[in-house]
Amino acid sequence: MSQLQGILTRLKNLQEQAKETESAQRFFEIDGEKKCQVTYFSKTEMFELEVFNEKTKSSKYQFDNIDMITIEIFDLLQS
């Protein structure tokens, strides 16, 4: 549960940072390896999740719900 709370806190901080600019970005990594990047766009109130994959091109997903992207990041970091 604490890892979920940590992800949620980081995403909320990202929203706060984006109030000063149009967007803000943050990376999530495991053992120094970047797993994904999250960009928050304050104008549209949308999150964009870019998942990095060694073998294929990175994939991008849009979220308008902070809880859903938190769960997606949690699952990604667990695999």
Automatic annotation (TrEMBL):
- Superkingdom assignment: Bacteria
Coiled coil: which residue ranges?
A: 1-31
Identification of the protein by name: DUF1797 family protein
Q: Keyword Coiled coil on this protein?
A: yes
Q: Say yes or no: keyword Coiled coil present.
A: yes
Which organism was this protein described from? Answer: Peribacillus glennii
Q: Which UniProt keywords apply?
A: Coiled coil
